[in-house]
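Q: Hi! First time doing this. I have a protein sequence and I read that you can turn it into a structure. Is that right? Here it is:
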Amino acid sequence: MPSSRRFLAAAALMLCVATAGCSDLDDPGQGLTRNDLVADLAAQMTAAADLTYEASYQLSGGGKATVAQTKKPARTAYVYPGGKITVTADATTECHMAKTTTCTMTAPLTAASPAPATVFDGAGETGLVTPATVLALLNAAVLDNDVEVDQHDTTIAGRHATCVQLAGVDDAAARDFTTCITNEGVLGSFSGILNQTRMDVAMTHYSEQVEEATFALPQSAKLVDRRGR
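A: Yes, that's right. Below is the predicted 3D structure, encoded as structure tokens:
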């Protein structure tokens, strides 16, 4: 997403605060709207699917998590307290780490075979909010003309990020939340009530280099193959 458009959206919002023309910002005939800024962030996150990166996150309650992905080969890993999920062209593998670690392989992701809900619904025991979950929330906000939007810029783990505080999002898992998206389109932070669970996630480290071990299955794990081959 061109940075110039995002700059113009932010500039328009700041000009609105400094003048009496806030109502004009929501008038489709005036060009930029608050929804344009949210749409830009959603487009950045969509484009980030082609990136190779590894990001570390601080979770509510002191836990830590990692989201990593590579473009070639196309694969993604989610590491969170007590578990791990890897998504590759061959399988979606979900590991539960306890006294005996078990990793269950299911069919690769397709429209008819969604990812395991334990992590991809963005709530629950994992404490991890995934980029896909935040993207879905932003897309819902874009379709809601009555959503309230406040915007500011910040720096998270050394990366510039645009933050939006959204209120009153209809037809979404979270009606009120704040999220920050880096210039690269990577999730910088999320804070809000998601599926009736308080979720707070903040990026603490970002790298364009991905450790191969991030995609490896835990040693001595019991492997269960349910791909039906």
